[in-house]
């Protein structure tokens, strides 16, 4: 049996302000830094160790992972960063307060944008400063890979190639793996690993900076999962 650790980044400044974040590169809040530290201490308490780590290109995820690995004295292990683990791109919702958005569009519509795997939020244009084509970190992405908006199914479409081509080979090499990413990129991955229906993933909530442990059999099929306490 092998164990895979998934962890959502600690609370960000925009989480704290109840704003849609997406690919906007906001930092951790003060509480987010503390949550990341506690997550690392919890993993250390339970004697977890890692050979390789994976994270996104966004600082709230990168910093959470850094803090966790620092607590484990494993800052030296390889860390692979990929845009494929970025948060879902929320299009024109990015930066908006969620409560204020509900007041404008209604709770039912906003809930669809947030949770329906096939519902696209309003897109940005390529002239919008939020369009990722303006960000140097995405300079090597094709126009097709640069989103104007993104639903969960499209997020899954970019997460799974990275899972199958990069993370799975590491697990097959018996490397101990930790993935630090975002609420929706992890929801997409969990939907695949657990074979969740659209209805089931709609209600899936991931707390910030709480290690989620997946136990995998020799065929890398899930045989159980739980949050570390």
Note the main attributes of this structure.
alpha/beta; six-stranded mixed β-sheet; globular; 229 residues; 8 helices
What do these coordinates show?
The chain is α/β, with parallel strands linked by helices. It is built from 8 helices and 6 strands. Strands 3-2-4-1-5-6 form a 6-stranded mixed sheet. A hairpin with a 5-residue loop joins strand 5 (212-216) and strand 6. Helix 6 (152-172) packs across helix 7 (183-193). It is globular, with a radius of gyration of 17 Å. The mean pLDDT is 96.
- What is the H/E order? EHHEHEHHHEHHEE
Protein structure class: alpha/beta
How many helices in DSSP terms? 8
Q: Can you tell me the residue ranges where pLDDT is under 50 for at least 5 consecutive residues?
A: none
- How many extended strands? 6
Tell me, what's the shape?
globular
As a percent range, the share of helical residues equals 25-40%
Rg from Cα:
17 Å
Average pLDDT rating: 96
| N-end to C-end Cα span | 20 Å
The assembly state of the depicted protein chains is single chain
């Amino acid at each position: 049996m092998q164990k895979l650790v998934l962890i959502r980044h600690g609370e960000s400044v925009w989480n704290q302000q109840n704003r849609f974040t997406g690919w906007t590169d906001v930092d951790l809040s003060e509480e987010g830094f503390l949550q990341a530290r506690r997550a690392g201490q919890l993993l250390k308490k339970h004697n977890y160790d890692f050979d390789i780590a994976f994270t996104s290109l966004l600082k709230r995820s990168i910093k959470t992972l850094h803090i966790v690995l620092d607590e484990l004295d494993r800052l030296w292990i390889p860390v692979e960063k990929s845009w494929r683990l970025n948060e879902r791109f929320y299009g024109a919702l990015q930066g908006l307060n969620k409560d204020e958005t509900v007041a404008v569009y209604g709770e039912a519509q906003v809930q669809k944008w947030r949770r329906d795997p096939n519902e696209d939020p309003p897109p940005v244009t390529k002239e919008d400063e939020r369009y990722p084509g303006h960000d140097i970190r995405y300079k090597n992405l094709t126009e097709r890979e640069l989103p104007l908006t993104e639903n969960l199914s499209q997020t899954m479409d970019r997460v799974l190639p990275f899972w199958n081509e990069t993370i799975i080979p590491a697990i097959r090499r018996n490397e101990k793996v930790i993935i630090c990413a975002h609420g929706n990129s992890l929801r997409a991955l969990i939907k695949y690993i657990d074979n969740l229906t659209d209805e089931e993933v709609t209600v899936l909530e991931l707390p910030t900076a709480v290690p989620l442990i997946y136990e995998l059999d020799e065929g890398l099929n899930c045989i159980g999962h739980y949050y570390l306490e």
